[in-house]
Write a structure and sequence with these properties.
With 157 residues, the chain is an alpha+beta fold. It folds into 2 domains: 9-50, Winged helix-like DNA-binding domain superfamily/Winged helix DNA-binding domain (Arc Repressor Mutant, subunit A); 70-144, Alpha-Beta Plaits, CATH 3.30.70. The protein is 37% helix and 19% strand. Strand 2 (99-104) and strand 3 (111-117) form a beta hairpin. The longest helix is centred in the first third of the chain and has 13 residues, at 38-50.
């Protein structure tokens, strides 16, 4: 079982690199690109999945094509730092599809959220009627992304 990056060999790294670029590759195509037999490649992929290195296969959507082109980065403060309050807030975050990323933060703010909405009016409704109404939320500061310089889901391997 693979536990650490140091245990990955060159073929494992090539597999990871290719799959995070194009997860639709057939096993035969992947094996050819990484210089391995199809059977060996399939076994390696299964080991990487079992080890938790490879997560679920998904397709990335185009936010503009879906009318969800506004990215808001929202710093958030909770009212209290008790486990119950944090758990309630994090459960709330998991339920809200507008919130596509959430990070617990060090420093002045408790959380950083990335929220994707159709427009500023859509965000205002979400902020005023949903987010700030949640009993665990103590305050928020919103920042609208003007453009996206880089976005990737690929990790260096």
């Amino acid at each position: 079982m693979v536990k650490f990056m140091s245990e990955l060999d060159a073929i494992d790294r090539k597999i990871l690199d290719h799959l995070q670029t194009d997860a639709s590759l057939s096993n035969a195509e992947l094996a050819e690109r990484v210089g391995s037999s199809a059977a060996s490649c399939w076994r390696r992929v299964k080991i990487l999945e079992a080890a938790g290195v490879l997560g679920p296969t998904v397709r990335l959507l185009n936010p503009q094509a879906l009318g969800r082109s506004v990215n808001v980065l929202c710093n958030l403060r909770v009212r209290s730092h008790t486990r119950e309050v944090r758990n309630a807030f994090e459960d709330f975050v998991r339920e809200r599809r507008e919130i596509v990323e959430c990070y617990s933060m060090s420093g002045e703010w408790d959380y950083l959220l990335r929220i994707v909405v159709a427009d500023v009016a859509d965000y205002e409704l979400f902020l005023m009627r949903v987010l700030l109404d949640h009993p665990s939320v103590g305050g928020a500061s919103s920042h609208f992304a003007l453009s996206q310089t880089k976005y990737t889901t690929a990790l260096p391997v």
